[in-house]
Amino acid sequence: MSFTRLLTSTAAFAISAAIANAADMPVKAPPFAPPVVQQASGYVEVYGGWATTKFRHTLCVVGATCREEAFDFDGWVLGGAGRGNYWINPSMSVQLDVQAEGTSYKLDNGGPFSSNFSNHSYLIGGHINWRNSQSGLLGLFAGAGDAGGGFREAQRHIVVGGEGQLYWNQLTLYLQGGYDTVLGTPANVHVNAHAWFVRGTGRYFFTPNTLLEGTVLYANGEVEYESFIPASGSTNGFETWLWEAKLEHRFATTPFSLFAKYRGSDTKFDPISFGGGDSDELKITDHRVLVGLKLFMGQDTLRSNDRDGATLDIIDPLSIQTGPLMIGGTQALRP
Predict the structure, then answer these.
(1) Angle ∠(328,271,273) on CA atoms, nearest 5
(2) More confident residue, 290 or 56
(3) Which residues contact 202 (CB under 8 A, 6 or more apart)?
(4) How far apart are CA 219 and CA 284, in angstroms?
C-alpha cells in the first residue's frame, strides 16, 4: 500500500468517526433571542379633505313659537402631525407629539361673516409610559396649544390626563381620559372654557400592515363669560361627542402608508336665557372626510409601530371642530 493511499484511508476513517460521534451527541436548541425593540422610532403625516359644519340656533321668544336659525359652512381641511417614541429602558418609553389642523370655510347662506374665513388648532404634547410591548402600557400625558381663529381669536389651552393600552393578538384597545382648560381669557375674546373627557379607541390588524380603527370621545364642560355678556348667569354647560373611523395600509418594503378617515363631532350647549324669558339653544355638528400619507422612521410594519413605537395621540375636546374654542362658545353666529 502506497503512502498516499494510506493517508487517504486514514483521513476518511477519521471523518466518518467524527460524524458518527456527532450524531450520538445530544442536540442543544439555540438560545431564544427576544425581538429587538428599536430604541427610537416615529412618523410624520400630512392629510387633507373636505368638511361641513352646521350651526343650529333654536330661538324661543315669549309669546311666540320657537324657530330654528341655520348656518351651514363647507370647507377644505389641511393638517399634519409628527410623533416620536423613545425607549428609556426595556419597561419605559416616552413619546413627543406635534399636531396641527386648519379649515378654510366658505359661507353658504348668509350670516354676519364674510364669505371666506378659516380657523386652526395646534397642540404640542408628550407621554410617559410604563410599557410592555407584548401586553400593553399605562401612562400619563400633557399638552398645550392654541385653537380658534375664524369665529373668535385663538386661545391658549392645556390638556392633561392618563391613558392605557391593551394588546391582544390582532387587537389594540386604547383608553384615555383627562381635563382640558383655557389659560387665561384675553379681554377681547370673553370666552373661557374647561371640560373633562374620556376617549376609547380600538384597532384591529387584518395583517401586520392593514388596520381598521374606530374612536369615540365624550366631553362634558362649561363655558364662562365676562360679566357684560347679555345672558342670565355667567356659565353655560356643553356636551361634546366625537366619532371616527379610519382604514390604513402600509405598502410592503416601503416606509409609506396611506389612510382614509371619517370624523364626526357634535356639541350641544345648554340653553341661554335672556331678559323676559327669551332663550337660545345652540347645537353644532361637523363632518369631515380625510385622506393622508404617513412616512415611518424605524418600524417595519403598522403593527410593530403600534406595539413598539409611536402608538399614542391626543384628542382634546376644546379644539375639536365643534368645541367652544373653535366656534366661540354659544355667542357664535348669534342671529
Answers:
(1) 100
(2) 290
(3) 171, 172, 173, 174, 213, 214, 215
(4) 14
> What's the pLDDT tens digit per position in 44-65?
999 999 999 998 877 777 667 7
What average pLDDT is seen over the chain? 83
3-class SS at 259? Answer: strand
Rounded to 5 degrees, φ, ψ at 307 are: -95, -30
CB 115 within 8 Å of CB 107 = yes
216 three-state secondary structure: strand
Helix (H, G, I), strand (E, B) or coil at 137: strand
CA angle 312, 316, 322 (to 5 degrees): 135
* Cell numbers representing residue 282 in the block: 345652540
Residue with the larger pLDDT of the pair 208 and 14: 208
Residue ranges with strand state E in 183-278 = 191-207, 210-225, 235-250, 256-269, 272-273
| Residue type at 216 in one-letter notation | V
Kindly give, in sequence order, each residue whose CB lies less than 8 Å from that of residue 189, ignoring residues fewer than 6 positions away: 152, 153, 155
Domain ranges of the chain: 40-331
Q: What distance in Å separates the CA atoms of residue 188 and residue 51, rounded to the nearest whole number?
A: 28
Residues 279-296: what's their mean pLDDT?
A: 92
pLDDT of residue 228: 46
**pLDDT tens for each residue of 144-203:** 999 987 767 788 999 999 999 999 999 999 999 999 999 875 555 556 889 999 999 999
Residue 130 to residues 89, 127, 136, 138, 298, Cα–Cα distance (Å): 10, 10, 9, 5, 21
Say whether pLDDT at 297 is over 70.
yes
Dihedral of alpha carbons 231, 233, 234, 240, sign: negative
Architecture of the domain made up of 40-331: Beta Barrel (2.40)
Rounded distance between C-alpha atoms, residue 219 and residue 195, angstroms: 6
**CA distance linking residue 214 with residue 249, whole number of Å:** 15
